[in-house]
Amino acid sequence: MTFELPKLTYSFDALEPFIDAQTMEVHYSKHHQTYLDNFKKVLDKYPNLQDQTAEDLLKNLNSLKVEETDRKQIRNHGGGFVNHNIYWSIMGPEKKIDQELLKDIEKTFGSLDIFKEQFNKAALGLFGSGWAWLVRDEENNLEICALPNQDSPLTMGHTPILGLDVWEHAYYLKYQNKRADYINAWWNVVKII
Q: Which residues contact 19 (CB under 8 A, 6 or more apart)?
């Protein structure tokens, strides 16, 4: 399988004023690209793994026949690659609300506002760098989780639905140390809910 950055369906400035063009360009062109490059570099050592999807590699991470240091590289860089693919895909300048997901969120959490409050709390409570997630667990139930670094919900058997990057590179140019301001602004560009 050839791994490459997904094409953005919007321009770098399309999410302004909530996410600025410079942050988008650096985040996508530098950070995401570096995760991909390092992911491909570790996979070069394992030709037998290159026919799998990045998602399958993460789902089966613990059973891969690789050196332990390479398993960590696949987790970190493969996770960074996949996590960012999700991040770009759930954002956009125009809403395309997933009505079924919205109904499921309201059923699970009580309301969209309660869900956002709980999601924001998870994102704010994450010490250091990482991601806040809305996932479907093994029984297809929705839940919120926060994971450090570039860890992927896929490694836990969960299906990621909505992911918020709370690494500083995602917001520091515009929001500096104001993670809460970034999180609140981000909801304006989430297109699926």
A: 91, 171, 174, 185, 186, 189
pLDDT mean across residues, the chain: 97
Residues 150, 76: Cα–Cα separation, whole Å: 5
Of 109, 96, 107, which is closest to residue 193 (Cα–Cα)?
A: 96
CA separation, residue 135 to residues 60, 84, 109, 121, 152 (Å): 18, 15, 13, 16, 10
Chain segment 15-69, per-residue pLDDT in tens: 999 999 999 999 999 999 999 999 999 999 999 998 999 999 999 999 999 999 9
For the chain, list the domains and their CATH numbers. Answer: 21-89 (1.10.287.990), 99-186 (3.55.40.20)
pTM of the model: 0.96
Cβ(2)–Cβ(14) below 8 Å: no
What tokens does 149 get? 């670094």
